[in-house]
Amino acid sequence: MPKRKSGIATMGHRDSAASAANLRKSLASQSKAELVKVLLELAEADRKVLRQLTSQFEVAAAPKELIAATRQAITDATDFDEREINYNFDYDYAAYETVKRNFAKLIALDDVRTAMELALGLMKQGSHQVEMSDEGLMTDDIEDCLNVVIQALKKSDLPPKEIVAWCSAMIANDSVGFIANDELQALQKRFQAAT
After folding, report:
1. Nearest-CA neighbor of 152 among 94, 106, 95, 98?
2. What's the pLDDT at 7?
3. Which pLDDT score, from 0 to 100, does residue 17 have?
4. In terms of pTM, does the model score above 0.90?
């Protein structure tokens, strides 16, 4: 059954350009304080806008805020409509980019263990999303995020047993059985040899 079209007419290219020009003119006449107020209101109302602004302006977050933002980005990235199971449904690419960037920030803050914990959540939720989709188009995005943590663990001074246990948990949480599997098994074997 085809999707219903909304009753809203789409704007043509000319209308859109004129609308953007009018908006630009109106924004240029506003004070800086008014623009900041509107941006903050938009960011509070829409997490995608918040993520975009945070990324665009490289806003530094306190560690607790960074962890919470990463958890939320994982939830947003792996979300899907259960009515669209076995379809190539839309997913939030920008949220995956945020997860990847935040994993790198956590590692730079020398909080690899938190990145490992969050990566477990991403594996569980992300592999479920892949399993529920038709072609698993988000697999590369998930692996890009996880590889940030895997690469950090290769250089880590964490106890080898801890890294081996994490790799086992990651593999066990992969409901499709192939997400970053080669990388995780190689990392596991490397640190098993070190124990």
Report:
1. 106
2. 37
3. 75
4. no
User: In the numeric block, which tokens belong to residue 54?
Assistant: 């945070």
What's the residue count for the chain? Answer: 195
What is the residue extent of each domain of the chain?
61-194
- 8 Å CB contact between 188 and 138: no
Q: Does residue 166 contact residue 116 with C-beta atoms inside 8 Å? A: yes
H-type alpha helices, the chain? 13-28, 32-45, 47-56, 63-78, 93-108, 112-132, 139-154, 160-173, 181-194
- Tracing tokens 């066990």 back to the chain, one arrives at 172
| Predicted local distance difference test score (pLDDT) of residue 74 | 98
Distance, CA of 119 to CA of 70 (rounded, Å): 10
| Phi and psi angles of residue 19, each rounded to the nearest 5 degrees, phi first | -65, -45
CA angle at residue 175 from 172 to 180, to 5 degrees? 70
- Structure token digits, residue 111: 């909080």
- Going from the first residue of the chain to its last (195 residues), give the mean pLDDT of each consecutive group of 10, the final group possibly shorter: 35 68 80 72 71 66 87 96 88 94 95 98 97 94 98 96 98 98 97 88
Please identify which residue in the block is written with the tokens 């990847």: 100
| Phi, psi dihedrals of residue 98, rounded to the nearest 5° | -65, -45
* Residue 50 confidence (pLDDT): 66
The candidate with the shortest Cα–Cα distance to 137, out of 176, 171, 100, is 176
Structure tokens at 102: 């935040």
